[in-house]
Write a structure and sequence with these properties.
The protein contains 18 helices and 18 strands. The chain is of the alpha/beta class. The longest helix is centred in the last third of the chain and has 16 residues.
Length: 486
């Protein structure tokens, strides 16, 4: 990527002056909604509303045309009827904007000659010197600058190292919202819709050179130039993990993709083969994509083979063994002095120190589990420790003790500290699974406690998953990337 191109992207993601074309003094359209969302996010730059009717909005004057704005602009958000978009885009170009996002729909996704002609006009304007995100998109979310998606006034302002781009606005917003509670922190997110100008290939190039971005995730429906995309993907995936969710691989999905963004879904066998050759990481749904991002963001990028499983219940241990094998991992068997050292910290009878480590009692003190993690983590065959604390059982203990709430007696903060200290001492990462079979209306307090527990582990840099299989799956993706296996 040329220096000038990179500079344009930086102005797009970190603009100082943004024109919002389509802000109405009356009613609530997309333009007005974006103005309010950016204000709620605490956008760091200047917002300039534009509408032919003029007036004022939120105490600011509405300029009747882009040309009336004093001085240059860096970026534009266009939310007007499709037929007015090319003219508005050209005016923003002449005002010096590095880029614009077009929220408006009514282009090639309609499958009509009129819509396709309007999109060609957008391309013609872009070719004269302005980069375009969209049309038919939700735009850009950049926590560092305060840019946000169309309906996103409540997204996190914390920046991270994960970048995401997608043709789907809804999926982009869903992942951004999931990130708030899952512990995903984003550098940039882009919903590019029809992709009349900027698409996945260009964003891949930018993310490759973006020092803040260390993990790249994508939702792809179709690509304009297969050779260009796959060539770029191969280059980028050799340096940074690229996680891809490909939509439209089934016949029904391909039809849905055509009506969504006018893209071609593509043949399943060809896509899967090319993604493997490119060393990209293919995932099957949004949950797997999010969990894989979490693992890459928090775990060291190294091969993981030997795993310990620490939790309660014999059946849980059996399932953990079977799942580990399915993802190319195994559970080293503990005997001798290590077995005895682990067993000394477990309640009796009923516990087992062989690996899986059955603690037999969900109320084992965090200090004891810390010693278990230390003893198991010092085994050279172990590369990862998976802990499954059954915290939901504290509800019954709270009832027995007459405690005011289950949060009051559940030592999740102490457990998070114990896990982090064991990780630091042994250099063996710890991942946590927080199951919850109690999801009835009478167990809302358990859900609240588990959500706070998740945040405590995440604050300690420990990834948290919903189930053992999902944890293994995410770890396996990291392991295969570290081994250089597609």
């Amino acid at each position: 990527m040329h220096t000038s191109q990179h500079a344009d992207f930086e102005r797009i993601f970190h603009p100082r002056r943004v024109a919002i074309v389509g802000v109405s003094a009356e009613g609530m359209g997309f333009g007005s909604g974006m103005f309010l969302s950016l204000t709620a996010m605490g956008f760091s730059g200047e917002l300039i509303p534009v509408n032919p009717k003029g007036g004022t909005y939120a105490g600011r004057p509405i300029y009747k045309t882009v040309e009336d704005i004093p001085g240059d602009i860096d970026f534009a958000i266009i939310a007007v009827a499709a037929q007015y978009v090319p003219q508005a885009l050209e005016a923003c170009r002449k005002k010096g904007a590095a880029g614009a996002e077009i929220l408006s729909s009514g282009f090639s996704e309609l499958g009509t000659p009129e819509g396709q002609a309007l999109e060609e006009q957008i391309r013609a304007v872009a070719s004269r010197g302005i980069r375009v995100v969209g049309p038919n998109c939700f735009g850009i979310y950049c926590p560092a600058s305060g840019l946000t998606f169309l309906p996103g006034p409540d997204l996190a302002r914390l920046s991270g190292d994960i970048a995401f781009c997608a043709q789907s606005g809804g999926m982009s917003v869903d992942l951004a919202q999931m990130g708030v509670w899952m512990g995903l922190r984003f550098s940039k997110m882009i919903s590019f819709g029809n992709g009349a100008d900027l698409r996945d290939t260009q964003f891949l190039e930018y993310f490759d050179h973006d020092d803040q971005t260390q993990v790249i995730a994508m939702y792809v429906e179709g690509v304009q130039s297969g050779n260009g995309f796959f060539s770029t993907l191969k280059q980028v995936a050799a340096r940074k993990p690229v996680i891809i969710l490909k939509g439209g691989l089934s016949q029904a999905g391909a039809r849905a993709v055509m009506s969504h963004t006018a893209s071609l879904g593509g043949d399943r066998a060809i896509w899967e083969s090319v993604l493997r050759q490119s060393r990209a990481i293919q995932v099957r749904d949004l949950i797997e994509l999010a969990q894989t991002c979490l693992a890459f963001s928090l775990l060291p990028r190294r091969p993981y083979q030997g795993v310990t499983v620490i939790g309660g219940g014999g059946a849980l241990g059996v399932a953990a063994c079977d799942a580990a094998e399915a993802y190319g991992m195994d559970l080293p068997h503990f005997t001798g002095q290590r077995y005895e050292r682990i067993l000394a910290n477990l309640p009796k009878p009923g516990s087992s120190a062989a690996n899986p480590i059955d603690v037999a009692n969900p109320f084992v003190h965090p200090s004891s589990l810390h010693e278990v993690l230390l003893a198991a983590g010092e085994d050279e065959r172990v590369s990862l420790q998976l802990m499954v604390p059954l915290l939901y059982h504290y509800k019954s203990l709270a009832l027995q003790l007459g405690a005011a709430s289950v949060k009051e007696i559940t030592p999740y903060r102490e457990l998070a500290r114990a896990a982090r200290e064991a990780w630091d001492s042994t250099d063996k990462p710890v991942v946590v699974v927080l199951p919850n079979p109690k999801q009835g209306l009478d167990s809302m307090d358990i859900e609240e406690m588990l959500r706070e527990a998740r945040q405590a582990f995440l604050a300690s840099g420990i990834p948290v998953f919903e189930d053992v299989r999902g944890a293994y799956q995410a770890v396996a993706h990291v392991s295969r990337f570290a081994k250089g296996i597609a």
